[in-house]
Amino acid sequence: MSGSPIQLAIRRLKASWIAVASFCLIGIVVLISILGYLITPDPTPYANNQHLELSSCKPGAEVTMLKVRRQQDIQHRSWFGRMLYGDESDYREIPINSFYFEDASIVIEGYNPIPESEPVVARFSLAEVAYRIEPPAKPIIRNDSVLFVQADGGATAMTVSQLQERVEKENFVTHTYILGTDRFGRDLLSRMIIGARVSLSVGFIAVAISLLIGILLGSLAGFLRGWVDSAIMWFVNVVWSVPTLLMVIALTMVIGKGFWQIFVAVGLSMWVDMARVVRGQVLSVRENGYVEAATVLGLSRFRVIFRHILPNIMGPVAIVCASNFATAILLEAGLSFLGIGVQPPMPSWGSMIRDHYGYIIMDKAYLAILPGFAIMMLVLAFNLLGNSLRDALDPQTIRNNSPK
């Protein structure tokens, strides 16, 4: 088998079905996370469209909704903004069991999960259901016609039958909740998709922070040695002695709770692994001939480190990155479960488990099992990919497969 060590490693990765399956799973989750609100059934910000009467609906539940036009002006985002942050709807959706028309009004019986209880009945003007009316004007009914002024200033006159036909055709929609709803009546699938974005974002940013700090300190300690190595390793050992979860909790308490704070807290707690690995690799590589030649030629220390040493130790660094990515996902989920991670209404797999772990002893255990299973599969995929990288980048393995 011929080729460079990197090419040989890639071939070994492709030959491992575990590595390919892990990479595909991670790629699918990344793609879903990037698309975000463009593919969620509930595209509102944080997928937070609540219907308390739909609390804990089972997977596959179908509910008919009446779309009532919001009378306030809604500022819509661009396509890119909708993908990142979601967008408010022009309509307010009301779950219903049945409806009937009464002149220029519609009377609905609200969705009732308990058949024995008294149904909630509400009445709406057809014009206000279908159109945004200029306030404070109200629709005027004359004989069989309805006259009203739309928000854009145009006066509209329609017959009652025309309004009824329009509302019946355009203002009713049936939602299918593929994974059911949570305890607040929010679409569980939408919350899972946006929660994946949170987990991956924490992983990426935490690994980036750990790379920045760990590579800098580890390379300086391994290359300069002496008192610099002693000082850096003393600091690394002090940080290493503090349990990771306790350190993250302490950092969270200092810099606050929230989306960006949890990124920084997790990243600042994970750099010690990277620093120790980089230091060990630099200590072994700095004795090679090409490093001594670069030093003799008068190249600066930083040039030798970043141009000649670091590119040759990226294999072990990539393995640690995969492991740290999985650890960051677990830390974020654990902190959100404890209530000190990302804050509501932002969805997180850990907070979803916290909200529904009481349902495990009921007939709706899936509300906690589904996000838990998602965490398990994603962490397992990163760990298996890291193991495959370790095997593929092992120098002894590459040497055995190199051309004689």
Assign the CATH topology of the largest domain.
MetI-like fold
Helix content: 55-70%
In DSSP terms (H or I, runs of 4 or more residues), the helix count works out at: 16
How much of the sequence is in beta strands? 5-15%
Assembly type of the chains comes to single chain
Give Rg in angstroms.
Answer: 29 Å
In N-to-C order, the SSE pattern is HHEHEEEHEEEHEHHHHHHHHHHH
- Quick one: CATH class of the largest domain? Mainly Alpha
Secondary-structure content class? alpha+beta
Strand order of the largest sheet: 4-3-2-1-8
The CATH homologous superfamily of the largest domain corresponds to MetI-like
CATH architecture of the largest domain: Orthogonal Bundle
Number of domains: 2
Low-confidence stretches: none
- How many β strands by DSSP? 8
